[in-house]
Amino acid sequence: MWRNAGLLTVWQWGRQRVSRFASSSSGGSIPKRICIVGAGPAGFYAAQYILKHLDNSRIDIVERLPVPFGLVRFGVAPDHPEVKNVINTFTKTAENPRVRFLGNLSLGTDFTLDDLRDRYHAVLLTYGADKDRKLNIPNETLTNVLSAREFVAWYNGLPGFEHLNPDLSGSTLTLLGQGNVAVDVARIVLSGADLLKNTDITDYALEALSRSNIKKVLLVGRRGPLQAAFTIKELREMLKLPNCVTTWRPDDLQDLEETLPSLPRPRKRITELMMKSLSEQTAQQSTASSNSFQPIFFRSPVNFIGRSRVEAIEYAVNKLVDNRAIPTDERETIPTDLVCRSIGYKSVNADSSLNFDDSKGCVSNVAGRVLKRTLTGSDQTIDDIEDKYETGLYSSGWLATGPTGVILTTMNNSFGVADTICKDFNNNVIRVKEDKPGLDTNGKRVVSWEGWKLIDAEECRRGETKGKPREKIVKIDEMLSIADGK
């Protein structure tokens, strides 16, 4: 059983550690031991960079779920398989002999930050942002007022969200926010089950979407078309979606043509696409069976209307002043049957010893170095770094920057922080005076990379029987059983 199991017993862990790391300790060279907390894009990109640029480094990637890849697995839309190809690169990193994956271990539950700092020379926190920002307006707790994060987690199979069961019996979904996540939700809901049946969307979501009565999706933003956060790729996909008509409010797009010459090229291209779509609007053939996608600008929700469930949203009509949305006294009420907030994520403080900014929802840091609670010093000498920053403690990805950008943005941020870690080792900011033992997994049910491969193989096997790339397993206990070779 031990030969096939992916759950590390204490005996296995000790043997693996000795066999994998013994060569690095021979010859008097002390390995530089680094723990990365979070096995999403930020963690894997940092590990990739450190392996390439820091000699004699040994990395443990610790993840609270039994499975790796974070936002790539649970955030990327199922109809965007090309974006998930980065998993191939992450897999190569994980299978490097200088790396260990330790799944099913959670900071704040299975170990503390002080534990990690005692047992590694450096710790990089990359555990992401998994909570929602709220609007804090009346009746936000009405039934069928959800977050886009929850909805995405539901159809992408994040454990704990399989019972979300959004009510799709009404005809209208309103998405509050105009980023790519909101557009992803709109596209998934309006695509229909036939377009999604060969993706890795969960079976329960596919079944629910096959029964959906949603015909209209409103994409509401507080500012104007020039400030919309979705990218041209996502807009193009919506405009080309079969059996779906995009409808603009002409007043929202007035005066755009005269601004075109002064716009940066990316914004100019997406604005031209909006204007082209508007010009073709009257020529579009809408039928009773057509779905409708309706971007709406200059509106801020001020009240959810309904008794037991949401029935409509009251909006303040905004005007734009210095790129900011300023509410006027004018109001508009628009009926809806389901609402998804998509106004951003925030991180949680996983350990009380961490310098965490609750208002921003991220770790207090400068360029990835975690700040001490009490700051001293004024320049960037080594002594000053020790005064200002927690030596050997770093953060990257959304935990450090807030939820901004795409995977490429996260890659660039993580490469930058990883470069700082390498320089701090090479410049003796982090002093490697003694070997560090790594995380004590005694008594913990840990999923190794071999365990993940067993889960992966089983998901692919289940998917193959349904014509899908995989059928995600959503129960943690089932994942652990499979990783254990059972």
From TrEMBL:
Supply the alphabetized keyword list.
Answer: Electron transport, FAD, Flavoprotein, Mitochondrion, NADP, Oxidoreductase, Transport
Tell me what reaction this enzyme catalyses. 2 reduced [adrenodoxin] + NADP(+) + H(+) = 2 oxidized [adrenodoxin] + NADPH
* Major localization class: mitochondrion
Q: Name one GO biological process term.
A: cholesterol metabolic process
Which protein is depicted? NADPH:adrenodoxin oxidoreductase, mitochondrial
EC annotation from Swiss-Prot or TrEMBL: 1.18.1.6
Cellular location(s): Mitochondrion
Pathway in which the depicted protein is active: Steroid metabolism; cholesterol metabolism
The top EC class is oxidoreductase
Query: Pfam families, alphabetically?
Result: NAD_binding_8 (PF13450)
